[in-house]
Amino acid sequence: MTEEEKLFYTIGEVAQIVDVKPYVLRYWETEFRKLNPPKSVTGQRSYRQRDLRIALTIKRLLYEEKYTIAGAVKKLEELDEKEGLNQLVNSTDFTSKPEAIQISPAEGRSTKENPLLSQEIVSPTQSFSPSPEKILELKKLISSTNEILKKHNLA
């Protein structure tokens, strides 16, 4: 399974990708409610792709844009209110370095070239018809999730 297909990451893997120490990630979990990876039955953190992208965003806000912890928490809340965080989380290339994630302060949207950003957001009242490619992608994801669950006797 390639890195793009991984469903869960250990804290060590996330620390390496984000380029911070594991204790920094654990601290961020206490300060940022949005960074909340579930724990496995053995108590290990299981970071999802969404958690990884949030960690990259937090690092960018703190280290590059020089926000304070309180300011970064507030900025993440603002992004979430505008659905910018969900947009960012779903569209960011998490395998690149953190500088690949850039949010325009004026717009609160990713400035990275990405076709997902040009798509309209479907409101809950609108109908949603996923493309055949998305359906196939979801089926593969479900299949790989079931394999993992069976492997660990959780299914």
Describe this structure in words.
The protein is mostly helical and 155 residues long. It folds into two domains: 3-113, Orthogonal Bundle (Multidrug-efflux Transporter Regulator, Chain: A, Domain 2), CATH 1.10.1660.10; 122-155. It has six helices and no strands. The protein has helices at residues 11-18, 22-31, 49-64, 69-81, 84-91, 132-151. α3 packs across α5. It is globular and about 40 Å long. It starts with 10 loop residues before the first helix and ends with a helix. 23% of the residues are buried. Mean pLDDT is 74; it is low at 91-123.
Keywords:
single chain, 155 residues, mainly alpha, Multidrug-efflux Transporter Regulator, Chain: A, Domain 2, globular
Number of strands: 0
| CATH fold description of the largest domain | Multidrug-efflux Transporter Regulator, Chain: A, Domain 2
Q: If helices are DSSP runs of H or I spanning 4 or more residues, what is the number of helices?
A: 6
Give the helix/strand class: mainly alpha
CATH class membership of the largest domain:
Mainly Alpha
How are the secondary structure elements laid out?
Blueprint: H1 11-18, H2 22-31, H3 49-64, H4 69-81, H5 84-91, H6 132-151
Question: What is shown here, in short?
Answer:
The chain is mostly helical and 155 residues long. The chain is built from 6 helices and no strands. The protein has 2 domains: 111 residues, Multidrug-efflux Transporter Regulator, Chain: A, Domain 2; 34 residues.
